[in-house]
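Q: What would this complex look like in 3D?
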Amino acid sequence: MLAISEAAAGAPADVCLLVEGTYPYVAGGVSAWVHDIIKGHPELRFSVFNIGSRAGVYGPPSYVLPDNVTRLHQTYCSELETTPLAGAARARLDGEIRAFRRRGRSRLQRSRVLAAIRRLSLETGGGDDRLLEDLACGDLSVGQFLHGRETFDLLAEIAEEVAPQASFLDLFWHLRAIYVPILRLLPAAAPPARCYHTVSTGYAGLCGAVFSLRTGRPLIVTEHGIYSRERNMDLARASWIKDQPDAGDAILVGAKPSPLRDLWSRSFRALSQLAYRRASRIVTLSDVNRARQIADGALASKISIVPNGVDVPPSNGGSGVPGPPAPAMSHGSQEWQEWQQWNDGRALRVGFVGRVVPIKDVISFIQACNLAMADVALDVRIIGPTGEDPAYVCRCLTLVETLGLASSVVFTGPRPAHLIYSDLDVVVLTSFSEGQPLVILEAYAAALPVIATDVGACREMIEGRSAPDRFLGPSGVVTRVGTAGETAAALVRLARDPALRRRLGMAGRKRVLGFYRRQDMIDSYRGLYRDMVSQ
Amino acid sequence: MSLEPQATVTARASLLPLLLATCLDGLALVVLVSGRGAASSWIAPAALHLIAFGAAGLGTQAGRSQRALMAALTLTLPLLGAPVAMVALRTRRRGEVGEVLAREAPEKRSLTVADVRRLTDGLSASESLMSGSPDEKTATVGMLTRHPDAESIALLRRAVATGDADVAMEAALALEDLGAQLEVAAAAAHQELDGNPGFERALADADMLATAVHSGLPDASVIARLVADARRGYERAVSLCPRLLREIARRRARLELDAQGT
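A: Here is my prediction, written as structure tokens for the whole assembly.
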């Protein structure tokens, strides 16, 4: 455990935020949200419980912890990488293993954690309070799990029941990889807090549920992306899970989920269900996510939707300075005519704002711009950090070069938000996966229309969620993922129709003012924290 | 359209008949020497040599021409004929080029009972993507990704275009992964072709690129580059082994047709 500040270490925090490998080490996304939440509640004392994979993976913190953070707890769930032992060290380990078996035999037969692991592996019902209680008692160490005879018997049972055709050795390594992180986390002491707030399910959700059970303090679960679904997507693409050989011609027969992938998937779903079950309140960002949580076993009555929010700067309406369309302009006015003239004959300024990584599908964005440039002039900026995946950045640069777009597509690197949007006409998002992107809200705040793929909450952010929201009309165009053609068509349409751009941009600004204000989000959590802390 | 090449060499013949023939000829020599030139002593060795000739021609795994070669050599060169035949049939590099082509033929696995059950019980991949459970859809996308031939790519593209939002996203991600893998492989092939590789490498690179073009995976913007590199590979392969011009020309023709189609 690493204490950043010992100022108030003795007193319990009001809220213990549990995060998985993000805050304060990784910039953006959930980390930015956590930082915002902490800063938005200066009257509350927070502690942060960060679950990392292994020591040394993370660099220095990306955020300076606000003064109201009393403590940063750091724990790791992955095994340390060790070299195989030989000679005397190996003999000593063998001796320890034999001792484990002798000591553990009688105790392991009654191990509640092992019983819980059995249920997690073999049952699909989602568990009950007993399951969490069994896990929370923490009566099984990693050593006992890895070397106990009862574990081996359980492994044989799981192999017989779940994956009779899979390699036994593979099954062993998969079960080890699934459960060792859990066993490493279960003994962690609960940080003293009046309530626990986990910012995802998964391992953080499990720790939150266990801490809540042990201390009797309430648990809040906030999910931006749906953890079990995101892990399922990772699992579907994972090449390290061996599948049964497919029939000769793949096209003939659809696939059933492989037992090993299914085992992983079931374990992640079970972790989500444990957190949902223990949580007093579950918060998510959108109706889409809410539906997924319910499908994963969350009680609908516990779920509330608190969208992300941004600060909305005052409009530049009436300033007379050409720039983004101002809400105050009325059709036919002098400002309107100036604005029309300003638009005539110039390239549409298109911005992609985000990290240059595969999940953002920058490749499709570049292809879309290439297609659109056959019909209209575009001035394209890709605004965001390029250091995370150099190989992907290289692919994007090569594509830009191959397509001969080097003069019109510029990678600007990251820029402060207030400098980004005043220089754009349209913001495009081609991501494969999103929760509720702040980029869209920031674009709306600047009265810019958005073209975004139909992922996460993007559709309801563009077309409206509730009836009053939908009444405002669309504030952009929704396209299918991975379809550069649709994005290009939307770009051409917006480039040719400045009035449409203005209409969409104004709807976006009204939308963000009405439904996505940062202060509203902070106030919602303030009420939630007040209820939980006072319990 | 299959890229499966015609096998240009048959399975390698077993050497057992030739070993047997050599032993019989050796025995005949022993009998001949121990007979000390008596007229009757020629009969047994002659009989043994004839048996060796018959044995050499009996290689059941060998092709007709190989059996004829073994028998002829054994008959005309007593004792030495069979070892010469062995050397002739086992000479390395003799069939190297043909073997390269043959090796590339995808291994056809016969259906197992489990496969048949899947064929009869399960939905087709297309149906599974459209109407399977979420887990089945995800598993089918994964399976198509592991078999990225033209049909799989077409199905993934169809899922992107017409599937529900979740399956469209998974299929789009799968296509992105495959595209990234292809770009890495294509860049490596480009570099290898710049370095004037040997026949095997040039042909393998050209085939890999041609298969990618055929699959419909690469975007139109990069097809021209891939086709140009594949052409270079085939030209290099032909220059190194002109006698395979016909086979390589067939593959090149497929490449050109695919390139026109895109």
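A: To summarize the key features: Residues 1-11 of chain B have pLDDT under 50 and may be disordered. Chain B touches chain A through 54 residues (CB under 8 Å).
Q: Very helpful, thank you.
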